[in-house]
Design brief:
Strand content: 15-25%
CATH topology of the largest domain: Aspartate Aminotransferase, domain 2
Helix content: 25-40%
Number of domains: 2
Oligomer: single chain
CATH architecture of the largest domain: 3-Layer(aba) Sandwich
Number of strands: 19
Shape: globular
Largest sheet: 7 strands, mixed
CATH superfamily of the largest domain: Type I PLP-dependent aspartate aminotransferase-like (Major domain)
Bound molecules: pyridoxal-5'-phosphate
CATH class of the largest domain: Alpha Beta
């Protein structure tokens, strides 16, 4: 991980005025330092470290500050605004709840709660029967962990083992971090769960050493067995991010199909973490559909609520109904505002064909990114992703090794030029524009990335 920190000192950058971008002040804009200082005084340090852009408003595919600067947003906040920032249907849906004077009802029933659950389940086209709603993605991971283990107990597994993947991210609460595969993030826990096992991620550079993804998986699983786990009796769940986050890396389809068969043969529940991949982001309703597999559970968040705090775990009744009444609940579960956000999201995706749009624009997006990869082949090692999610992985032309400094500098330069990308702190620059972005703004954003790379290599 790089320890890069963005410059807080305003820099006189070239001024820009296009239909999609405006840069009319030094960047960071005047006034930024005051807000940053206030936050650094009062907000936990761990929340800081993003590019120094003070968001004033966001609309469609643009983010604005209060000084008249306007960015093309390739972040969707963090893959939240799939349906576009400040979407009108979303605002109207929330407004209706506000006008009804129903801001909360704990776990009591309400019409909006019933309607949203129905719409959400319909949106899965028969794949899942029930949902348990929460507020953040990490809570959805915790709920999936609980369901996988309760199911393991129900069917008499000897141990409640879960298999996850090295390098994966599932959230920052205890269970999610134990499941996650990023070691430094887990040091604070002070112990590891002997029943959580990690296999390596099938990165292309790892697979090079194996005859096939199948061979790779076989060897990874046999390592677990050598370490004392009986795959048949000791494992009750497998959890995978649909794509590995920092690199937007999808795994080989055959690998996921083999994982699915392994789960079926051994009576293991398969959970796909769709927190980033769900709700049309990848050009499918849910990203796991690219693998043509049928997970038992999916966890959702981010784009599920388009900005309202909404997450959830979805599955078949026989799994979702394992916990007794009251054993799996949450104060804010299915809050009316969250349901209003979720409902507007589903409606907007369906009415505006955003799945097809994400597919179509995704082809354009990846075609152009691959052109950049060819153009800067000495500095770009890979472009990964599908649909409207992509990561460009930078390397040093001298050493051929991952170059996280270059990716951070490119992210900063993009910001100075009116394009917002996700700074991962690793060698990747990650991008996921709102699915509603115009083709014109998508191409303009990519040309800004091109300029930024050209200037910084
Ligand atoms: N799972 C994945 C794949 C994520 O990317 C994230 C957040 O980045 C989470 C889970 C956790 O979501 P949240 O930050 O809402 O707790």
């Amino acid at each position: 991980m790089s320890s890069f920190s963005f410059s807080k000192k305003p820099v006189n950058v070239p001024l820009i005025k296009t239909a999609n971008r405006t840069i009319q002040t030094p960047i960071p804009a005047p006034g930024t330092d005051e807000i940053l200082a206030k936050l650094s005084r009062h907000e936990a340090r761990s929340m800081q470290g993003t590019v120094p852009l003070v968001w004033d408003r966001a609309q469609g595919f643009n983010v604005f500050d209060s000084m008249g600067n306007k960015w093309i947003d390739f972040t969707s906040a963090i893959f939240i605004a799939n349906i576009g920032h400040s979407n009108l249907r979303l605002i109207k849906s929330i407004q209706e709840v506000l006008d009804q004077n129903l801001l909360h009802h704990f776990t009591y029933p309400s019409k909006i709660k019933a309607t949203y659950h129905e719409k959400l389940i319909e949106f899965t086209e028969g794949e899942f029967d029930k949902a348990f709603l929460l507020s953040g993605g990490t809570e959805a991971t915790e709920a999936a962990l609980k369901l996988m283990r309760m199911n393991g107990q129900r069917i008499g597994k000897k141990r409640l083992g879960i298999i996850s993947m090295e390098g994966s991210f599932h959230g920052r609460t205890l269970g999610s971090q134990l499941l996650g595969g990023i070691e430094p993030q887990k040091e604070w826990i002070g112990f590891s769960d002997p029943d959580i096992f990690h296999i390596r991620c099938p990165y292309p550079w790892v697979l090079e050493e194996y005859s096939s993804p199948k061979q790779f998986l076989k060897e990874e699983l046999s390592k677990l067995e050598k370490n004392g786990a009986c795959l048949e009796t000791d494992i009750c769940g497998v959890i995978m991010e649909t794509f590995q986050g920092w690199a937007s890396l999808f795994y080989p389809k055959s690998f996921m199909k083999d994982i699915e068969s392994f789960c079926r043969i051994n009576n293991i529940l398969l959970t796909m973490d769709e927190v980033q991949a769900g709700f049309a982001r990848t050009g499918k309703r849910f990203g796991y559909q690219h693998y043509e597999i049928k997970p038992d559970l999916i966890t959702c968040g981010k784009g599920m609520g388009s900005g309202v705090a909404l997450s959830g775990v979805l599955g078949k009744s026989e799994i979702m109904d394992i916990p007794e009444v009251g054993m799996m609940s949450s104060t804010n579960s299915a809050n009316p505002i969250a349901c209003a956000g979720g409902m507007a999201t589903v409606e907007e995706i369906l009415k505006n064909n955003l799945v097809v749009e994400a597919q179509r624009k995704g082809i354009l997006f990846h075609k152009e990114l691959n052109k950049l990869k060819d153009k800067y082949h000495e500095n770009i090692s890979y472009v990964f992703g599908k649909g409207m999610i992509a990561s460009v992985l930078f390397k040093s032309a001298q050493t051929n090794k991952p170059d996280s400094l270059l990716s951070s500098i490119v992210a900063e330069t993009c910001m100075q030029k009116g394009l917002l990308v996700v700074h991962t702190g690793r060698e990747s620059v990650k991008m996921g524009p709102p699915l509603t972005i115009s083709d014109d703004a998508l191409l303009e954003g990519l040309s800004v990335l091109d300029e930024a790379i050209a200037e910084r290599i």
